[in-house]
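Translate structure to sequence.
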């Protein structure tokens, strides 16, 4: 889950948004974008693959005026990292723009329904479904934006922190959350928004941590309004931040590796989200369900990986052999690819890689496929080369790993 920044007040929003995104860079991301409403009520979305500095270059000759805006750094979960899939996303009419952190588990069903009702999509993301659904409800039911947001959120399964602009309501930002953090900073007749306090702290120490299933309405000249999903008005607790900037960069840790070690409980929850049904005592991975026949046919499983992923493979061997009674070999991809290995068409190859770009593992995948084996990938980076080259697979969804020594990706792979 990556970064969210928002601003509404009397200052120019763009510099605050860019500075905020830079403060959130420590989280890692693959693309960045911003949406602004200018004085004339025009809503513009600017986004690009790459760094926040690339976004700044992109915006050099654009209209970046306006005192209301939202901005995002994305770590792709659905749809490859690209300018098209970067946030914000417009609704079909371009009246609305949304940014989102998290994953919408039932986005495919919702998207199918919306498409059959004539809605046109522009991206491959789960996020676009949210904004299209909000607009669909807004027009079909002829309700105000807050109601449409609440009704849309009722239909979502998954995790989200969102911020939304409507050009017809140019002095307003609506934000909501479920299982993804969102902080609202309260200034003097201005509001700040952040996926954590990092982008807010230099402007105000008065913050509200939004609760799950709550929707916040920030309007210029009005008090912060927070409602729950049944539209009951809540009285949000305003807290005083007790930190300084130095403490919150890299999440307060001196380096990324330590941050990533401590992130593991949250990462593993993200990894299991929507896949473990505790009540039914079931684990459901769609790739395993869809390719059950090929997997059950396996006479042998070969796990190919390098470095830390290879070590995760060793644990995989113990578990798969003890549960499935299928022999498992764990191979260094760099050895496997160069030694003319025996590969049969009833072998299943499991390729494990955090980045999905490990060159030796990718070469091993290609070799296995040439020899007719069925290849399953376990990767972290969405849309990377290995997931594209395999027959199917599962993402581990632990977020960007910046530390060179793998920590959270390892536990994600094992999970
Ligand atoms: N699931 C969304 C996407 O793939 C949001 C990812 C994020 O949290 O950055 O676009």
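Result:
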């Amino acid at each position: 889950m990556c970064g969210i920044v928002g601003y509404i007040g009397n200052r120019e929003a763009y510099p605050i948004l860019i500075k905020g995104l830079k403060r959130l860079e420590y989280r890692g991301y693959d693309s960045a974008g911003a949406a602004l409403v200018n004085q004339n009520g025009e809503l513009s979305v600017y986004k690009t693959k790459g760094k926040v500095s690339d976004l700044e270059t992109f915006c050099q000759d654009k209209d970046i005026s306006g005192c209301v805006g939202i901005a995002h750094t994305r770590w792709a979960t659905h749809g490859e990292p690209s300018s098209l899939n970067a946030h914000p996303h417009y609704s079909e009419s371009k009246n609305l723009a949304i940014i989102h952190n998290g994953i919408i588990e039932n986005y495919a069903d919702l998207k199918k329904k919306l498409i059959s009702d004539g809605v046109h999509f522009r991206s491959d993301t789960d996020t676009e479904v949210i904004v299209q659904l909000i607009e669909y409800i807004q027009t079909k039911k002829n309700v105000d934006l807050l109601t449409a947001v609440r009704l849309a959120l009722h239909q979502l399964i998954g995790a989200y922190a969102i911020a939304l602009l409507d050009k017809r309501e140019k002095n307003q930002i609506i934000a909501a959350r479920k299982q993804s953090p969102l902080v609202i900073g309260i200034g003097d007749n201005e509001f700040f928004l952040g996926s954590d306090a990092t982008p807010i702290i230099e402007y105000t120490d008065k913050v509200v941590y939004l609760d799950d299933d709550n929707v916040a309405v920030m309007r210029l000249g009005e008090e912060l309004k927070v409602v729950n999903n049944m539209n009951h008005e809540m009285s949000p607790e305003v807290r005083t931040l007790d930190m300084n900037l130095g403490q919150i960069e890299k999440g307060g840790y001196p380096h990324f590796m330590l941050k990533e070690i401590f992130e593991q409980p949250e990462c593993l929850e993200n990894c299991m989200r929507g896949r473990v049904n505790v009540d039914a005592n079931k684990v459901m991975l769609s790739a395993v369900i869809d390719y059950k026949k090929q997997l059950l046919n396996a006479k042998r499983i070969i796990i190919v990986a390098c470095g830390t992923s290879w070590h995760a493979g060793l644990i995989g061997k113990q578990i798969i052999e003890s549960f499935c009674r299928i022999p498992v070999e764990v191979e260094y991809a760099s050895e496997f690819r160069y030694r003319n290995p025996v590969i049969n068409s009833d072998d299943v190859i499991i390729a494990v890689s955090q980045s999905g770009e490990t060159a030796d593992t990718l070469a091993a995948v290609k070799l296995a496929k040439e020899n007719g084996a069925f290849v399953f990938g376990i990767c972290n980076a969405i849309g990377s080369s290995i997931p594209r080259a395999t027959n199917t697979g599962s993402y581990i969804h632990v977020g960007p790993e910046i530390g060179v020594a793998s920590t959270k990706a390892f536990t994600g792979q094992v999970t």
